[in-house]
Amino acid sequence: MGLQENFMWGGASAANQCEGGIFEDGRGLANVDVCPAGKDREDVIAGRRIMLEMDEEHVYPAVEAVDFYHHFREDIRLLGEMGFRVYRMSIAWTRIFPEGDETEPNEAGLRFYEEVFRECKKYGIEPLVTISHFDCPIGLIRKYGGWRNRKMIEFYLRLCETLFTRYRDYVTHWLNFNEINMILHAPFMGAGICFEEGENEDAVKYQAAHHELMAGALAVKMAHEINPANKVGCMFAAGSAYPYTCRPEDVWEALLTDQENYFFVDVQARGYYPPYALKRLENKGIMPQMESEDEEILRKYPVDFISFSYYNSRCIAAPGTGSEEAEGNLFKSAKNPYLKFSEWGWPIDPLGLRITLNQVYDRYQKPLFIVENGLGAVDTPDENGVVNDGYRIDYLREHIRAMKAAVEEDGVDLMGYTTWAPIDLISAGSGEMRKRYGFVYVDKQEDGRGTLARRKKSSFYWYKRVIETNGEDLG
Ligand code: BGP
Fold first, then answer.
1. Which CATH class is domain 8-468?
2. Any catalytic annotation for residue 372?
């Protein structure tokens, strides 16, 4: 009993939320750099307000973030001290191809990640690399319209080839797109899409999704060809949809919500568009344009494993139910009266993780990997500068318990667990700094002040012990 010996414990981050240094060493500008903090962020990430450069009025948190670009040695040493076996991180596409459509990569960018991987190796930490974590060069948005254009597949594969070849000795675990289903909710952030007046937004989103799905399948093919040891996973924002009541109309809406999210995994893991998706896309007149070889490519190159983020379950009511709304990871749902909520109004539902693990495993029977789970909270250091984040420990403990039950009692095949995010960073949804997730506190305030110094929180020592005991001692 217990988790497998080589269970991959660790934590996860994304380039644009931690690196900063966005004007250094030839890096180009990306969609995620121009998403401002504050009230306009929501419209920008949704593609409703077009922002392709920075202006004077807004603050752009990605510019400095928590300056991992200059702190990575210290940061990785801290991860090493916690005993991390894996560090999930992402590549900033524009460090490698500043505009996106160059034929030659930027050596300085390649060198940076090589240094990061070397540092990981020093501590026996295996990198798990997200090729695109909400990341699209502005050059590709201006010239091609982002993922709405099929040419993106070629540019993405150029990035993949560069990464798979250059980092052959360092990386064997890859994720093709972070939270691929978020394209439906945050299309600018997820796929560099800006909408034009009067166009059918769903048609654009599903066309772009098709291009990402094709690019993802071709990345699997390429990864295996370049190094047979490579394993590529898909990644989606998970969290099962519960019906608000047992009224069949609520159950039906919940099922539709699950299908909307599973659609992406159905294609990436099973290798074909499921019948429900084909019918609905066809009936709505928004079936993506496909090339004759697409079907075969999808079928031949499914992913090796399935990864997901889990923050909360969702509760779904039929239209007109009058249920209260609750926040959640990038989209709202009905308020589940049986759950507690985080300071940001996200439901807290550890058993929901076990439910999700079971549902996803039942559906695909492929190895799973939880690559994000954590609590965003305001942390206030005491007079000695210590952060006692017992609330974070409680959240993680309960989720790890649920995860272990799914493995030990339900037989789910789980490769690992990486928390979001081991070192405080910028929030993707809100752009805030004060929404912290880390085991390590970063001295940076909402208004940008601070020394960027790193300090261990109580959860640091707790998680170290969890890893040491392979999840047996949860404190
Ligand atoms: C997911 C993203 C992450 C991360 C996380 C927490 O959607 O993959 O990038 O940020 O959510 O969300 P937030 O930062 O909005 O609290």
1. alpha beta
2. yes
